[in-house]
Amino acid sequence: MSYAYTPGLKVKRNTIVVKRRLLPVDGEVMVRKDDEVLYDTVVARTHIPGDIEMIPLAYILGVEPYGLPKVVLKKEGDQVKEGELLGFSKSFFGLFKTEYTSEVSGTIELISDVTGQVGIRHFPVPINLDAYISGEVIDVVPNQGAIISTTSTYIQGIFGVGGENHGEIMVVAEPDEELTLNHIGKDCDGKVIVGGSLVKADVLRKGEEENIRGVITGGIRRIDLTKFLGYELGVAITGQEDIKLTCIITEGFGEMNMAKHTFELLKSCEGKLASINGATQIRAGVIRPEIIVPHAKSNLSDIQTEDILVEGMNPGTRVRVIRRPYFGAIGTVETLPAELQQVASESLVRVMTVKLDDGRTVTVPRANVEIMEE
Amino acid sequence: MKSTTDAKEVEIILATDCGSTTTKARLFMKTGGEYRFVFSGEAPTTVEAPYEDVTMGVRNAIREIEELSDLKILSENGVMIRKTPEEPGIDLYVTTSSAGGGLQMMVFGATKNITGESAQRAALGGGAIVMDVVTVDDGVPLYRKVRRTRYLRPDIVLMSGGTDGGSIRPVTEIAEILRIAEPKARFGADYSLPVIYAGNKNAREQVIKTLDDKFALEIVDNLRPVVELENTDPARNAIQYLFMEHVMSHAPGYTKLMKWTDVPIMPTPMGEGIMFQTIARARNINVIGVGLGGATTNIYSVFNERFVRTVSANLGMSYSICNVLLESGIKNIIRWMPFDIDEDTLGDILTDKMIRPTTIPQTLDELIIEHSVAREALRLGMIHHKFLAKGLRGVRPPDSLDNILAREAEGTRSYIDMLKIHLVGGTGGLLSHAPRRVQSAIILMDGFQPEGVTRLVQDSVFMMPHLGVLSTVHPKIAMEVFEKDCIVRLGTCIAPKGLPLKLDEELMNVEINMPDGSNITESLNLGDIVRIPLEEGKIANIKIEPNKECDVGAGKGQPLETKIEGGVVGVLLDARGRPIITPDDRNEMRKLLIKWFKAVDMYPPSVLDKFEKGEI
What we know:
heterodimer, A: mainly beta, Glucose Oxidase, domain 1, SH3 type barrels, 3 domains, six-stranded antiparallel β-sheet, B: alpha/beta, Nucleotidyltransferase, domain 5, Rossmann fold, five-stranded mixed β-sheet, globular
């Protein structure tokens, strides 16, 4: 029997989610192993080096670069405050004096007698790293952070914008209707709203105004994403946008009904607190946006494992078609013929036959399906 | 245990290319006394999260070969089986890699047009993607240079600047930017970022003083020791060494992969480049080649024995497809489509491809959409390539005014003359997997717009990188497979350069003496394209009479008699103009496209009829 290997998006009712929460540079870990943490508990903190300012001080003071160390009042490693005199020079037998007072506060990191530059690094910026998900600290990485684990509902979207966010799940629309301004009210304040087959830019903007923390929907048009972000996306590396809400798309670009299974699972989480992250990175292996709804009580009896991924695709595997003409259709793998077959584009490709849930049996390229990790 | 590299004992060779999207395995075997390509297998690349082990994808691709061939290449626990006197297995394993974005470099120079450009050429020549170029005179405020440098995560930094014996100040300034910004290496912050210094030798001491405690500093000969000379070899060799020693050894799973391979892992663009150079050398011709990948478009040129490689980092057919859309503009993509589609829908389709990069077109209209994007990726890639394929700038002008002007022109314009390009070749998934070979031929023609008489070739199933790395140990085997199974001779394109004064004038008259003795004559007006079958391996004599305003290689309006080679597509007489005339009116353009596609049998005629009637 032939073998195929195409990981899909995870849509799991009960699974163990583990998050490594590590600082970008070494710092202080604030929690201990076995601690219970909330999503906003600070697990580690540090200071990251500030930005640097380069000042052409020799030029400003009218001296040669090699003479700079003699006219700078500080040494490398010294601190300087905004408004403090950094250096001066005299000319015409001391009649004229040129001074330079620092425009920033920081540490002198460079005084160059070759280029005449002085580098001042701003003071370090404090970073507090929160737990992101509520759960248990299962390990601590010394000086770096903690590993948090929780049993939760876990759903991956296909694409998102906006970084980590939190809010109560609130279903506002059916999966086959467009999410409109009418679905957004004052009661959405602080919530993660769910539903719809399409969201437009004006709705997302309104969502920001109403302090909505997240929007989870089936599809978005590229034109609306551009309008919302203010620029066109070239490569799919997201998560750092300067926006107030996180938007997660579960199906793709264009109007697309949210998959029934995804919608039902989100609906079952209504009223519960979700940790969401729109960060998407489409490289080999991919980072997909995620919705994590930790369970109040751990239920380890029916934990869903990732065996499907390990085993690959076989007859009987549940799959979703992810390209036209059957985009979005869900079904069960029937056969995986080893021989190449011609499809409508005339390409010779490896295919599979899929019995769709609507009763049709269709042939699709293996590359155009993903495993449903239900 | 590693296997032999002695050609006499090599019978089964496994080669892989760990691409940004897909890992492609190819099996070469000695059968009946000759080396042939026999099987291929492909699987998603697994270098990044959640897998973070490149060997998983390699194993999966190999499993496909096992399935098709009945050969046992991997043991039950996934270890590669090597041939021993007791057990069958493979003799040799080689690989190229562009996974995880390939080799990503940042380049520093003193002057934008002199050392900055030379450093770019050296980095690109080493098979790298150039993430950013910072020079003292680039007009960017210093604080922004520092900030840009700080937040990038290169694999290697190449720093150049100054001629030997010149002022050390500009080099010191860029060394200070690097020191202050202190960029971190892409694969983890737990090792020092490699920095190659290839600048003014008098500044070495100052560079060491400024950088040695913060970076893994490697000092090589100056790449512009004098303004009149570019010496990129030492920097390029250092890049290849550091790629293996510092970059690959930190990439997920590569330590394991390096133990499997019999020769060092090579960046994919380098493997491709070796094979295009081989074609040019073997036939003593000028060549343009392209590796059209999922994330990048790599263009290679060998012009009058001068080799230049460029890697356009964000022009590709999957991950970077929306960047092609962004850079070319949606109208330039839509102009190649013979059916009606609104811009927003096309934007959605392309963005869907970007977020699901491993999917392939199942329907013909989606295939045509990807073919349209490919033309634009090639066009944009060639613009980038020509920017670097030009003479050395900054060279002190000789005394006469004519010489000064000639030198200036050489320094600012590309030296590539499409009329003097003898062969255009393509590799990469989209070209190799095109259902009809004529599709690749037309994509290459529309993207590069070759002029005069140009042979067209393509990689059969994408194995040029594999053969490039194989050629470093077994050049004869690599060439044998290349000639027999890799290179597909598409045919010859005849395209006059220029346009007639009146649009209804004849563009060219052609008389072909076919190998069977028959004569074919064609008279083409502007906008015509004709395909004439001429089998692979056959040669025909052709006489071309271009319009008095057009040139096919013998001068404006001058006839040309020459021999042309056949191929699986044949001869393409292209009178669509150079540049190709594409009407702004969508309906006019659609009609023209359908006419062209029908003339060359590009897509099924029944579907083109439906496009014509507006039924699709």
